[in-house]
TrEMBL record:
<comment type="similarity">
    <text>Belongs to the BamE family.</text>
</comment>
<feature type="region of interest" description="Disordered">
    <location>
        <begin position="105"/>
        <end position="127"/>
    </location>
</feature>
<protein>
    <recommendedName>
        <fullName>Outer membrane protein assembly factor BamE</fullName>
    </recommendedName>
</protein>
<comment type="subunit">
    <text>Part of the Bam complex.</text>
</comment>
<keyword id="KW-0564">Palmitate</keyword>
<dbReference type="GO" id="GO:0051205">
    <property type="term" value="P:protein insertion into membrane"/>
</dbReference>
<dbReference type="InterPro" id="IPR007450">
    <property type="entry name" value="BamE_dom"/>
</dbReference>
<dbReference type="InterPro" id="IPR037873">
    <property type="entry name" value="BamE-like"/>
</dbReference>
<keyword id="KW-0449">Lipoprotein</keyword>
<dbReference type="GO" id="GO:0043165">
    <property type="term" value="P:Gram-negative-bacterium-type cell outer membrane assembly"/>
</dbReference>
<dbReference type="GO" id="GO:1990063">
    <property type="term" value="C:Bam protein complex"/>
</dbReference>
<keyword id="KW-0472">Membrane</keyword>
<dbReference type="Pfam" id="PF04355">
    <property type="entry name" value="BamE"/>
</dbReference>
<dbReference type="GO" id="GO:0030674">
    <property type="term" value="F:protein-macromolecule adaptor activity"/>
</dbReference>
<keyword id="KW-0998">Cell outer membrane</keyword>
<feature type="domain" description="Outer membrane protein assembly factor BamE">
    <location>
        <begin position="32"/>
        <end position="103"/>
    </location>
</feature>
<keyword id="KW-0732">Signal</keyword>
Length: 127
């Protein structure tokens, strides 16, 4: 009887939904392009594709059927659950090789985490 109870406890302990002492590590998974509102504000109609790629990075999706459209998708999963506040889609439309319009949402810049590429580099301290 003890062996049966021990086997049942071992079997149930592997199920995370039934285990009250769930100490498993849940990885934070970020997927896609983290495009900030600051970078989107620098976009101007008439910019070339290479200029847009420089500001926003390589798009996550380039569709062969919609060659004049780039999609920048971002999502963040914390603790195994999708964070609905971080699920954003930004779409950039081109007319030929020039930027026509931008639609969608961008991420707010995280304070102190992202560096502005246009800002001058900090000076090194002299000993």
């Amino acid at each position: 009887m003890r062996a049966l109870i021990f086997a049942a406890v071992i079997a149930v302990s592997g199920c995370s939904s039934l285990n009250p002492l769930d100490w498993t590590h849940k990885v934070q998974v970020q997927q896609g392009n983290y495009v900030t509102a600051d970078a989107v504000a620098k976009l101007k109609p008439g910019m070339t594709r290479s200029q847009v790629r420089f500001l926003l990075g390589t798009p996550l999706l380039t569709d062969a059927f919609h060659a004049n459209r780039w999609d920048y998708k971002y999502s963040d999963a914390k603790g195994g659950k999708l964070d609905s506040n971080s699920d954003k889609l930004l779409t950039v439309y081109f007319n030929g090789d020039t930027l026509e319009r931008v639609e969608g949402q961008a991420q707010a810049a995280a304070p102190g985490k992202l560096l502005d590429a246009s800002a001058p580099a900090p000076e090194a301290k002299k000993p």
